[in-house]
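explain this:

___
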Amino acid sequence: MDGGMLELWQDYNLTARTFEHLAMFSVALLLSVIIGFAVGVLLSRRRRYAGVSFAALNTLETFPDLALLAILIPLLGIGAVPTVAACVLYSILPIARNTYTGLTSVSAGHVNAAESIGLTEREVLVHIRVPLALPMLAGGVRIAVVFTMGIVTLGGLVGAGGLGVPLQTGIFNNIPGLILLSGAWVGLLAVLFDGVAAAVEHRLNRRYGSW
């Protein structure tokens, strides 16, 4: 990092902004995984509701990011809360859909073999369906990582902090160096986290995908 970029980094406190960004990202992704996985499991047990549920979640996905944030602000105020909420609302669909697909795609042979040795429906879910669905779940989480990183960046517009703040400052005040530095750093973080998610997905595919 040359002297000019280092000065911009220090002047606009990008280290603190990075920690704010990653904190919101982590909370949003964790909530998305918990809620999305729970929805996927529930719908796999109540398949007659899957069509209408996924249609509703798909409709939610059509809302532009900024429009959803604007709707959430009167309900949740400004700052990190509506930003995290928007991340979760966008990320539920890929995680829930992939979880549902993974759970319902387990072959009848695996299920019948488990039931033949006395496993209950709950035990089949925990010990057979969920492990074999993990590669699909990881794929949904990977999509959610990209959604979450982007929306957290937009949170700078609504007082959430994070790396969206210096990026917006650079745009509004025409500071090309700050725009380049903030944008490149956010992009690098997105690539790094996507790489981690891809590695996890690949490992799970090697472990369970051939079953």
Summary: The chain is about 85% helix and 0% strand.
